[in-house]
Design goal:
Layout (H helix, E strand, L loop, with lengths): L24 H4 L5 H4 L33 H4 L2 H4 L17 E10 L7 H17 L5 H8 L15 H17 L6 H5 L3 E5 L3 H17 L10 E2 L1 H4 L1 H4 L1 H8 L6 H7 L2 H14 L8 H18 L11 H18 L5 H5 L2 H19 L8 E6 L1 H11 L23 H4 L5 E8 L5 E7 L2 E2 L15 H7 L1 H5 L3 H5 L9
Parallel strand pairs: 1-4, 2-3, 2-4
Antiparallel strand pairs: 1-5, 5-6, 6-7
Helix pairs in contact: 5-15, 7-9, 13-16
Length: 488
């Protein structure tokens, strides 16, 4: 087993302390080499059948925690070995294929709740302490042992688990792509780092870099990163999105309707019944607070919180759908501008791929061999939507919950903390360039490209498939609030 290090504040870090989880750069870079000396190999067998009942520390509802889920629930084999690497996902058409460029767009690691969520949690906790009745062990635990340790000043900051999320991911990717994410390329300046300016993203970037420098025991050099909100927080800069969706309550009317609908009312009634409090005491906000408490306790501390006992699986699926509805209408397919806001990031990715292809064709060394970009769920989801991933034939609405049980758009399955999209460009010789997309270290296919080499299609076919976006999808034009009238 590897020794887990705490990198917060210069010493050991207690997950239940009030410290907001800031990571000091001078400390992150001094990761002990001891952490990595036991990395001697990677398992080749992967568990895909992990059952929550096999581990009492995993809540029965762990697979339904939406965007607040752990990365390990998406890749269960990592529960046994957090540094396991599945190289079978790389299946180029010939042994001649060599990676020449890799782009990684990564969500930040596990974080604390924001101040708004903490206020709701505090209100629920006070209600349970003062009014809940019953002899269940989980309820007694909340009332006599559990303490409200979340504070508003935590406000979404990275936690120690979030540090580990990116540090471990860096090690796994270096083993998955040893010729790309290598000590030579890092020292030579061929690995570039970009991040959102938000503290949780900056600290995730520092953790990713610390994973690499610790792996190779690099103590004589630091590696810069650039804060680039134009690419990693484009949603804040897209005026049309901000005005028409983000600040427009009617744009998410389906979400509000579902919160007031029969499925959610039933969940609230069941929570009230389990707490033995009047039904009207449990609002949607308090039900969400309970669900969040379960999710954060599990994600941050890997414990099966007593708060999780307020939900059975059917309840969790309703709460999950409410979360997916919000993501669908605010970041996904609900409105065209949601995905079009990511046009700048889309073009940035393909411009680097084109540059790498051109340099490789001319026999030059590919200068931007690897780009690591760290942002938010709100960064990754619009781009996945623009590319056409996880699109169902019918939109998610407040009235079709029952018919959407098999939906593709299920963030619990693809958007956990540290979720990542990798685009890997291969040179297979003779001008044969191929592009492989990987999502959360799994093979995926570009929607609409389903031929026999769909997992690694020709790069020219990918560009042709997205030709309209590559020729258009102009961020400035899409994001201006009032578009000029079309020429008559």
């Amino acid at each position: 087993m590897l020794t887990s290090l705490s990198l917060v504040g210069g010493g050991a870090y207690d997950h239940t302390s009030r410290l907001p989880g800031c990571i000091m750069p001078d400390i992150v870079w001094k990761v002990s080499v001891v952490y990595f000396t036991s990395i001697i190999g990677f398992c080749c067998c992967f568990r895909t059948d992990v059952n929550p009942e096999d581990n009492p520390n995993i809540p029965a509802i762990a697979r339904h925690l939406a965007t607040k889920g752990r990365y390990e629930e998406v890749n269960p084999y990592l529960i046994d070995d957090i540094l396991a690497v599945n190289r079978s996902i790389l299946q180029p058409p010939s042994a001649q294929c060599q990676e020449i460029h890799l782009t990684a767009i990564i969500r930040h690691g596990t974080r604390y709740p924001n101040s708004k969520n903490v206020k709701k949690m505090q209100k629920l906790y006070e209600l349970v302490k003062s009014s809940a009745a019953g002899k269940e062990s989980w309820l007694r635990e909340i009332q006599t042992q559990w303490r409200m340790w979340y504070t508003e000043d935590m406000d979404g900051r990275l936690v120690q688990k979030g540090v580990d999320d990116h540090r471990h991911l860096a090690v796994r990717l270096s083993k998955l792509f040893p010729t790309m994410i290598s000590e030579e390329k890092l020292r030579g300046g061929f690995i570039n780092f970009q991040t959102s300016s938000k503290h949780r993203c900056v600290n995730s970037t520092l953790s990713f870099k610390a994973g690499l420098t610790g792996l190779w025991a690099i103590t004589d050099k630091e590696f810069a990163h650039a804060e680039n909100d134009a690419l990693m927080r484009f949603f804040d800069l897209c005026t049309r999105f901000v005005e028409e969706v983000d600040n427009n309550p009617s744009a998410q009317s389906e979400v509000d309707k579902f919160k007031q609908g029969p499925e959610m009312r039933r969940v609230q009634e069941k929570i009230a019944d389990r707490l033995r409090v009047p039904c009207n005491n449990i609002t949607y906000d308090l039900a969400e607070a309970a669900f969040d408490l379960c999710a954060y306790e599990f994600a941050i501390k890997a414990v099966n919180s007593p708060w999780c006992q307020l939900f059975d699986e059917s309840d969790a699926k309703v709460m999950e759908y409410a979360s997916d509805l919000r993501e669908f209408w605010k970041r996904g397919y609900g409105h065209d501008i949601n995905s079009k806001a990511s046009c700048a990031l889309f073009h940035d990715v393909f411009s680097r791929l084109n540059k790498a292809a051109g340099e490789n064709k001319s026999g030059q060394q590919v200068t931007d061999a690897v780009t690591v970009q760290v942002g938010h769920a709100d960064t990754l989801l619009p781009l996945l939507t623009l590319l056409g991933f996880f699109k169902d034939s019918t939109a998610l609405t407040s009235t079709n919950y029952a018919s959407q049980t098999q939906r593709s758009f299920r963030t619990s399955h693809f958007l956990p903390y540290a979720a990542n999209l990798l685009l890997v460009l291969y040179d297979c010789g003779g001008g044969d360039l191929r592009l492989q997309p990987l999502l959360n270290e799994k093979t995926v296919t570009f929607p609409g490209l389903t031929d026999q080499r769909a997992s690694m299609p020709l790069y020219e076919d990918v560009k042709e498939h997205y030709r309209e976006l590559l020729q258009g999808c102009d961020f400035e034009a899409e994001c201006q609030l009032f578009k000029p009238p079309a020429d008559v």
